Amino acid sequence: MGGSKAEEKPAGGGGGGEDWWCYQFGNKDALIVKSSKKSPLALRMVVFAMTMICGIFICTMCMKQLGSDSLSRIVKIEVAEQLCNKSAILHSEVHFVHYPQPITYSRSECKCTPVRFFAIISSQRSGSGWFETLLNSHMNVSSNGEIFSSKERRSNISSITKTLDKVYNLDWNSSASKNECTAAVGLKWMLNQWQSRISIPLILCLQGLVANHADIADYFNRRGVSAIFLFRRNLLRQLVSQLANNHDRYLKQLNGTHKAHVHTAYEASILARYKPRLNTTSLIRSLKQVDDYTHDALENLKSINHITIYYEDLIRNRTKLLDVLDFLKVPRSKLVSRHVKIHTKPLSEQIENWDEVYNALNGTQYESFLNADYRI
Ligand SMILES: *[C@@H]1O[C@H](CO)[C@@H](O)[C@H](O)[C@H]1NC(C)=O
Ligand SMILES: *[C@@H]1O[C@H](CO)[C@@H](O)[C@H](O)[C@H]1NC(C)=O
Ligand SMILES: *[C@@H]1O[C@H](CO)[C@@H](O)[C@H](O)[C@H]1NC(C)=O
Ligand SMILES: *[C@@H]1O[C@H](CO)[C@@H](O)[C@H](O)[C@H]1NC(C)=O
Ligand SMILES: *[C@@H]1O[C@H](CO)[C@@H](O)[C@H](O)[C@H]1NC(C)=O
Ligand SMILES: *[C@@H]1O[C@H](CO)[C@@H](O)[C@H](O)[C@H]1NC(C)=O
Ligand SMILES: *[C@@H]1O[C@H](CO)[C@@H](O)[C@H](O)[C@H]1NC(C)=O
Ligand SMILES: *[C@@H]1O[C@H](CO)[C@@H](O)[C@H](O)[C@H]1NC(C)=O
Hints:
Layout (H helix, E strand, L loop, with lengths): L20 E4 L6 E3 L6 H26 L2 H16 L32 E8 L4 H9 L4 E3 L13 H12 L15 E12 L7 E3 L7 H11 L1 E7 L3 H17 L13 H7 L8 H22 L4 E5 H6 L3 H9 L25 H8 L5 H5 L5
Parallel strand pairs: 3-5, 3-7, 4-5, 7-8
Antiparallel strand pairs: 1-2, 1-6, 5-6
Helix pairs in contact: 8-11
Bound molecules: 2-acetamido-2-deoxy-beta-D-glucopyranose (8 copies).
């Protein structure tokens, strides 16, 4: 019920050039950071000064924390944890079980219903919008969408932490919010989003997750947050989907509105009409960079308790979803989504210069992308 709207939000704040950290693929491996360049010495001074300020800031905060408000809150949480009988929970699970006390409402009869924290970590056009609606169709799961598409919320680790705290305290009010009996709460976090108007060079933009990976992995491990890594094996299909999505962002083919996800086969057919032309000179390089980049990110985040899911596997075998429900320790149930897949045809009918692309990839490590098609 409540869940069906969270995904309606445009996937990603990925509109124009609102992202800071962008790698431009294709020409040069330039890291475009839209900030003024500083000399190493000046930079070091700044870092030093920041460290000092942070130190003082943390001390001050600690002092304040001992003040009335937080203290009573901490005590309250401890009391609640003590009141809830944890003896039925496996020892290995205790770290992942929580009893949040929302500020904005009371969990009333469910205050001792354990809550798991999760984050869907994915990349654009990997089916994560679809996946999230499926999860939100579960009565006890609340996934609050791509909340870090907002630049302000991800601008530094303290605003990231503050936002996460609010979500995991069940205080985040979104269309995906459920009742007090939520048993798993989370959000969707994109490792990257690909931006490009028409074709490659791709521009890969980051939603704060990579820039702050150490702190975030630390937060997740400390607070017992589990991650669902959702990826797509076929990067070529992902690229086509991304280019078609970007194309629609500018053309707004559906009655003047841009849609990242659709609910009818008719709308899907309109969005799938566009056949991108890929620059075969830079294609392999771009695919490799995206591949390496995802590997590096996962390497950095692998200490988090996680499950890895592939979009293609979910499409082929819906029972894979039950693995996710088991991972979140919520009761198994049938999950539904109104999303309709946009690109259903073989890749050869979806790329303008298919022959060129075929020749460029044939015989390379990405050859499998050309042939691996799935039935719907
Ligand atoms: C294709 O990519 C190459 C290398 O990045 C670039 O030099 C060339 O201009 C691109 N071609 C088109 C048509 O964009
Ligand atoms: C906690 O629950 C277990 C069974 O799950 C029960 O045996 C035990 O008595 C309960 N403890 C308290 C303090 O209620
Ligand atoms: C972090 O970002 C928020 C929002 O952009 C800002 O208000 C705050 O001052 C920043 N904090 C630090 C320590 O930079
Ligand atoms: C959540 O937001 C909706 C609409 O903005 C509002 O009607 C509702 O009262 C809010 N709920 C809470 C618990 O703040
Ligand atoms: C799921 O939600 C229902 C209805 O709100 C509630 O009765 C039930 O206890 C919840 N289940 C779990 C495992 O939290
Ligand atoms: C566009 O609007 C017309 C009439 O307002 C409606 O019949 C049609 O279904 C809409 N098309 C899409 C793709 O939303
Ligand atoms: C579908 O996925 C489930 C759960 O992972 C697995 O047990 C089952 O063997 C899979 N079925 C097929 C046909 O691959
Ligand atoms: C793909 O490459 C192989 C050799 O690597 C070649 O035999 C085959 O004809 C190529 N396929 C096409 C369709 O060009």
